[in-house]
Design a protein that fits this description.
By secondary structure, the chain is α+β, with helices and mostly antiparallel strands. The protein contains nine helices and ten strands. 45% of the residues are buried. Keywords: Hydrolase.
Amino acid sequence: MVAPTRDAVRRERARAPRAARHRGAGGAENFTGSFTALGRLAYDGAHVSANVIDLTSGHVLCAIDDRIVLPTASVGKVLLLIEVSARLTAREFSGYGILDKSPRDSVADSGIWQHLQAPSLPVADLGALVGATSDNLATNVLLRQVGLDAVRKRTESLGLARTALLDLVRDSRGPDDAPQLSVGSTAELAWLFGALYRGQVVDQVTSQRVMGWLSLNTDLSMVAGAFGLDPLSHRTMDHGIQLVNKTGSDVGVRSEAGILKGSRTAVAYAVTVQFRDDNLARRLRTLDAMRTVGYDLLEYVD
């Protein structure tokens, strides 16, 4: 009998069914608000998915259709950051290596490099831009350097079967392009962030570098909107909590995955909602529901 490889074990762990638990310390109910808020969105026609893991016990605290695959917009850029970080750890290129932006990399929307005069930046700085502002131009430059195939192989090696970065960032998607930038299941995304937190993605150095980039994230508009943190400065503990997260926004898509550490415990979480984005009221209801998940997370960890 052939012993299973470490990658095979990871795949099985990521795919294994787990019973959802939503009781806190002493048996107090938790996440009732999350189930109610996300359920209302589902009754309104949205596709909702959520997963929360207690990183101390390993228990799944909340699981709502967490195996389905939904668009996750920019959340998939985490997979690119993992590949870039792994190459830096392996010294396949230097963090101070300079990459140039070119017209073929140009894209609008999120990020600040498109508004800067600097024509070139170091690899590590591009990783920081992606972590801080989900920079689309920096994403495309890094993807041109490492290639989508390498990101896909790295993703598969982590045992992720329902989560993928499908394409570079485009201003518009034609019939020959991938329909989404990225897709994912919340079960796999929560597992991935938990593995990053524990230093188990490739190795400790690689994981910590990715967490460092993501700790710069300035988007606290979704789940993290419940935590009362300064969007521009929350890398250290603030009133006993600490956050590392990645968000994704597109028309009809809001997605977030992250780690929330409190005075009592830490959780890995992922929430994705795909909804009919035909009016502002429906979008605001989606964001309110995601913040409700945040309130439950905050109550649980603190």
